[in-house]
Design brief:
The complex is a heterodimer of chains A (about 250) and B (about 400). With about 250 residues, chain A is of the alpha/beta class. Helices cover about 35% and strands about 30% of the residues of chain A. Chain A is globular. Chain B is about 15% helix and about 40% strand. Chain B contains 5 helices and 19 strands. At the A-B interface, helix 2 and helix 3 of A face helix 3 and helix 4 of B. Bound molecules: adenosine-5'-triphosphate and magnesium ion. The site of magnesium ion (MG) has 5 residues of chain A, from helix 1.
Chain lengths: ~250, ~400
């Protein structure tokens, strides 16, 4: 069974004003098949955690470890991490002018599998996943994320999740900006991926509404760069009612 | 209007230039012209038409003696395209335009015979004129490409191997004709190629003019288009990829000189490596007879590494108030690391991810060429360029 372990993770970012410590000792263990929800106020470092797992060059790990089945993820380049089975659905997916979704997906699939996918089944798989996510087939010929609405970008992230079949996925506010229908469609996509591949998920969100469709095994409260509390699904409801106030130190507010 | 690559605010996407309104030095149509080299002062590099160019590298072409004998060409027989040599006194020479600078005048003064390519017939056809291995001695060439009224066709002038060439290319597009001319520069690393293209468009004619510069030490292709008659239309496209030590330049001029003429100028370039240098100057002149003009020009440069320099200078002169539209855009941007991260986060190795982004950036031009074979060929050439990186 696969496991993703984050141990005492400290992360800095270089800003114009100098070095800033953002993550201040994060511990988290995600087993294959588990869903962990991470909730926390704006600026608490949730995206920083997501980017650090994926290996974004802006974030410097100053202490701690990330291990995937005992292997040191921090030694891997961004693409090596993806090929090792990590996936990040981004909060703000970027546009890639001139690169079609079709070309992009095939290139990524080939990179991850190490061989080009069989033409016939691949085209079928892509079509099926797109139709599951209610993405019009003309998206295949459009440039990656170019002119996509916020919701379409999120669907495109989940499309990749379904097709690239990672072992662990970090979903950074995939629910933000989605209307109810889109939220359902995207959640179904995530659940389908769970059923098909049994991946582990780290679900970053501000709202409990997505947790009605994607049921977390664990909920973590993220405050000021570390996990302030963890519990089961009931913790999410409590957060919704009470907010984060009781976790915040007076100075931070 | 100069932007030197710096890893600063332009990190994400493109930064529009914002140096205020563009004030042309002089009305473009009033520039001095002559076919005689001696009518021009020796080149010192400070002239407006030379100030971006490494003039010392090709002093032989601006002031030396040029070999004006026939250049070696290869071309297959194509129905509806005739290729022949004509004498320098032939009346078909000098109809599209004449030189505005000394290298072009030197070529004009020196060539012995001109290559005449005539396109006739209404069905689509493609003729490729290959110039391969022109040697290392300075040479002059003259080409006239003529599209008969209502004809259609595509003519490719392709250069490979060695060259030290100064040339003039005249393009005469007859009434109602639709012509595509592609100038494809895939020269050797130490080649020098200076070209002036002069196009004259007849009534309701269409010219798609495409400059693709990939290989050569110094390549300067300056296309001018004279929209001389009502309803004429030019689409000027350019694609260039400058590696370390390469200088690729294009001075594009469009003269709207008749009612209801249209122009679209789109040039895109990538720069990579120490000393990679590109220049784009886009002059658009909308004359006082050119009512109802519709014009837009743009240049975009993608900077892949430090140590490069891209100059991008749009100029718009308007002599009539009665136009439909005229605009320009010019931007030079760093390679976007967020795009790279996105692709790599999907398992795509860095080199391949970079190539995808650059190819994506330039592909807009290739897709507009409208000839599948040529597009394939250009994609392959671009691929080779990217693989070399
Ligand atoms: N590249 C960066 N440069 C400067 N500061 C950064 C950078 N990335 C993150 N930060 C800062 O680190 C802190 C945490 O940011 P992060 O994006 O991780 O928060 P978040 O929990 O995801 O917030 P949100 O809920 O708004 O998405 C913020 O104060 C942010 O301004
Ligand atoms: Mg965030």
């Amino acid at each position: 069974m696969s496991v993703l372990e984050i141990k005492n993770l400290h992360v800095n970012v270089e800003t114009d004003q100098g070095t800033r410590e953002i993550l201040r000792g994060v511990d988290l263990v995600i087993n294959e098949g588990e869903i962990h929800a991470v909730m926390g106020p704006n600026g608490s470092g949730k995206s920083t955690l997501a980017y650090t797992i994926a290996g974004h060059p802006k974030y410097t790990v100053v202490e701690g470890e990330i291990l995937l089945d005992g292997e040191n993820v921090l030694d891997m380049t961004v693409d090596e991490r993806a090929r090792a089975g990590l996936f990040l659905a981004m909060q703000y997916p970027v546009e890639i002018p001139g690169v079609t979704v079709t070309n992009f997906l095939r290139t990524a699939k080939t990179a991850i599998d190490g061989t080009a996918p069989s033409v016939r089944t691949w085209v079928k798989d892509v079509r099926q996943s797109m139709s599951n996510l209610r993405m019009d087939s003309n998206f295949a010929e459009r440039n990656v994320n170019e002119g996509f609405s916020g919701g379409e970008k999120k669907r495109n992230e989940i499309l990749q999740l379904e097709l690239l079949k990672p072992r662990f996925a970090v979903l950074d506010e995939t629910d933000s900006g989605l209307d109810v229908d889109a939220l359902k469609i995207v959640s179904e996509g995530v659940n389908r991926a769970m059923e098909n591949t049994g991946l582990g998920i780290l679900l970053i969100t501000h709202y409990t509404r997505i947790l009605r469709y994607i049921h977390p095994d664990f909920v973590h409260v993220f405050v000021a760069g570390r996990i302030a509390e963890q519990g089961g699904p009931e913790l999410a409801d409590r957060l919704e009612e009470e907010g984060y106030d009781r976790y915040l130190e007076p100075v931070a507010k | 209007m100069t932007s030197t690559a710096m890893p600063t605010a332009e990190q994400h996407g493109f930064r529009p230039h914002s140096d205020g309104p563009f004030v042309p030095v002089q009305t473009r149509s009033e520039r001095f012209r002559s076919v005689n080299v001696d009518d021009f002062e020796p080149v010192n590099g400070r002239e407006h038409e030379w100030k971006y160019s490494p003039v010392a590298v090709f002093a032989d072409l601006t002031s030396g003696e040029l070999d004006g004998s026939r250049i070696e060409i290869e071309s297959a027989d194509v129905a509806g395209v005739d290729i022949s040599w004509i004498g320098r006194d032939d009346a078909r020479i000098g109809r599209a335009g004449i030189p505005e600078e000394r290298a072009a005048a030197n070529a004009w003064s020196s060539f012995g015979e001109a290559l005449l390519v005539t396109v006739s017939g209404e069905d689509e056809k493609t003729a490729v004129v290959s110039r391969h291995g022109l040697g290392r001695a300075p040479r002059a060439a003259h080409t006239v490409i003529e599209a008969a009224p209502n004809s259609r066709g595509l003519v490719v002038l392709r250069g490979t191997g060695d060259a030290r060439l100064s040339e003039n290319v005249e393009i005469v597009v007859g009434e109602g004709a639709s012509l595509t001319v592609v100038s494809l520069q895939e020269w050797n690393d130490d080649a020098v190629h200076l070209a002036s293209h002069f196009a004259r468009l007849g009534r309701d004619s269409f010219l798609k003019h495409i400059v693709v510069s990939l290989g050569g030490k110094v390549v300067r292709v300056n296309p001018s288009t004279h929209l001389a008659e009502q309803g004429s239309d030019v689409e000027a496209l350019g694609l260039y990829f400058a590696d370390a030590g390469q200088h690729l330049e294009q001075q594009v001029f469009v003269h709207h000189d008749a009612p209801h003429t249209r122009s679209r100028v789109t040039y895109k370039g990538a720069l990579q490596g120490e000393g990679a240098r590109t220049v784009w100057i886009g002059d658009v002149l909308i004359g006082n007879s050119a009512v109802g003009t519709d014009s837009y020009e743009q240049n975009r440069n993608l900077v892949l590494t430090d140590g490069t320099r891209a100059d991008s200078v749009p100029n718009l002169e308007i002599e009539t108030g009665d136009i439909e539209g005229a605009g320009h855009a010019s931007a030079t941007g760093r390679f976007d690391d967020e795009q790279l991260f996105y692709l790599m986060a999907r398992g795509i190795p860095e080199g391949e991810a970079r190539r995808l982004v650059v190819r994506g950036f330039l592909t807009e031009i290739i897709q507009k060429i409208g000839s599948p074979e040529l597009e394939e060929r250009l994609n392959a050439a671009l691929e080779a360029e990217l693989q070399g990186s």
